Amino acid sequence: MAISDTGPLVQTTPLVTFLQRVQLEAHRSYPNEKTPDPKFYIDLSLKLPHHLSTVEAAFNDLTSGSRDLPVPVKKLEKFVHEYFDDAKDLVPHEPEDFVTDPFEFLLNVENDQVREWAREVHSLWKTLCYRVSDSVRESPDRHTLLPLPEPVIIPGSRFKEVYYWDSYWVIKGLMTSKMFTTAKGIVTNLMSLVETYGYALNGARAYYTNRSQPPLLSSMVYEIYNVTKDEELVRKAIPVLLKEYEFWNSGKHKVVIRDASGNDHMLSRYYAMWNMPRPESYVFDQESASAFSSTLQKQRFLRDIATAAETGCDFSTRWMRDPPNFATMATTSVVPVDLNVFLLKMELDIAFMMGICGDKNGSERFVKASEARKKAFEAVFWNEKAGQWLDYWLSSDGDEPETWKAENQNTNVFASNFAPIWISSFNSDENLVKKVVKALKNSGLIAPAGILTSLKNSGQQWDYPNGWAPQQEIIVTGLARTGVKEAKEIAEEIARRWIRSSYSVYKTSGSIHEKLNVAEFGEYGGGGEYKPQTGFGWSNGVILAFLEEFGWHSDLFIKH
Ligand SMILES: OC[C@H]1O[C@H](O[C@H]2O[C@H](CO)[C@@H](O)[C@H](O)[C@H]2O)[C@H](O)[C@@H](O)[C@@H]1O
């Protein structure tokens, strides 16, 4: 009998399993250059009055003669059209708190051109706001979309569902747009997922139940509370955050690294509860896994792929033992700097929220937890020579404590190495900030349109020449809020570059992009045909948040 991987698994639904078959058949049917996005098939819903069993029977008939030859495209399209609905499970929704010109909107942005564009970006929330259709609530088995109680803001483009970490930057932008009800609704939706599953899902689809995404729920609650002072929200959030905290600090997510003096440091890693091809990319993952011969190797590789999706950075050389060789993906063997930043932030946020609710003991417990994690940052991640925090490669499977070794720090430069500067535990230390600013300036990461994700050109989405997308916002905000002049200056300069390029791409291609080609972006770059203006959730959010943070009054769109 073949030896199998025994790690945790979360089963998916019968509909997802069936739609994978349809996706695979479509991949066989279409001539290569026309193959539709595999995600299209996994997002389909069953049309009324058909039931899964009858549709499966019809599909079996359709494919029965096609063991060697694929189903002709026309026949497959007819089948899809007859039995499925596409993109009807979300219904456009006018956000109730949207006003064209919000009261006190970007008061510190004095430049007319900038204000006019900001209003346009603000109005794009309307194109990204939906509610889940009644049919999803009434017959969840017909859909891969999951029911959520409140309206949603989606990223847009091919992503027609809520995403966990994207929602943080969406909320930052909604705060600028004064759309507090919509922001609270997003948090309520994510909290409902944690209540149901024990963690916030990667996204609100049945095929995302086997993993989470970077844990930023506490930061979302914190941002909303900071503006609205809504104590009720905080009270509701605390038990949910405690549940989420437990998820990230137990089982396979928890690792212990022992330092040279014998002190144990508890940290966390990403670890998906899945070891098969991701349903939304089944055809691709199956092909990548075909490089391995044994079942165990395939399953481990596929878990590392699904785990990379849990990191939010799918894919990057950051997760490869031998970059850029994709077959060496080993995400579960990395103890990542940024994940632990998010968890340290969660500890500080929970301590703060418990303080608001008068739970002094609880608050002290979480302050202590944050202090312990801060020590772990010093012992495991910090590299004095590099002036940044480095990811750590595990030597074993991470189930037992292992002893720290200098050579296990990943000395490659990634934007995430600078993420700790986001939080007060680190950015309150002026000497440390100066070292980190120097390292960031010399890192090669600061590019014409913002901060690069990495310096390696691997062809992957989360590598050179792309930027650390909106995630750079946390580095910029952290630097901007220190008392160190050169930190503030570099923060403003990075934000200016990001805004100027986003503006340029928007004006020339017609959309706000989820990511920019940060390295090769020219002064006015962009290009492409003029299309109706479209938003992209998290980038929309960062544009508005940067404008709020820096309150520019000069012309941003001229090179300074
Ligand atoms: O369909 C493939 C993958 O798509 C998602 O990842 C990317 O888009 C997300 C939405 O903007 C974003 O949160 C993520 O950082 C991107 O890499 C999805 O999250 C993956 O799980 C999925 O496999």
TrEMBL record:
Record carries keyword Translocase: no
GO molecular function: alpha,alpha-trehalase activity
One of the protein's GO biological processes: trehalose catabolic process
Reactions listed under catalytic activity: alpha,alpha-trehalose + H2O = alpha-D-glucose + beta-D-glucose
Pfam families the record matches: Trehalase (PF01204)
Enzyme Commission code(s) on record: 3.2.1.28
Record-linked SUPFAM superfamilies: Six-hairpin glycosidases
Transcription found in the keyword field: no
Entries under PROSITE patterns matching the protein: TREHALASE_2 (PS00928)
Enzyme class, first EC level, given as a word: hydrolase
Keywords recorded for this protein, A-Z: Glycosidase, Hydrolase
Gene3D superfamilies: 1.50.10.10
Family: Belongs to the glycosyl hydrolase 37 family.
Protein's UniProt name: Trehalase
Gene: BnaA03g46430D
